[in-house]
Write a structure and sequence with these properties.
It holds the Pfam family DUF4096. By secondary structure, the protein is an all-alpha fold. It contains four helices and no strands.
Length: about 130
Amino acid sequence: MSCGLESSLCCLSGSGGIGTPGRRALDDRKVMCGILFVLYTGIRWEWLPAELGFGSGMTCWRRLRDWNNAGVWQRLHEVLLAELRAADRLDMSRAVIDSSHIRALKGGPKPAGARSTEADRAPSTT
């Protein structure tokens, strides 16, 4: 992470633990590395090795949840794009427009009804 992104993350996250009781909060950079490690490798949060120094998997998961709820990821994305534009390193010729998260107003074809899985009744002989 560049110095600009690291400071942006600290400013955007608002974490610092000032005035909160309990254990001292883990450094945002370490937690970010833990989050990226889990997302990159696909391991379960509880399997994050403590030896790596990222904190526990639950700590990383909670921080991810809190940052997501606070809109940190969207703002971090905007900061990253601004830094890339300022450095003339943003290549829009390779951009992908993805609308998979936007609801289709007219909708697609209706799915066929699910077939019954129970056995058919035998015909009556009376």
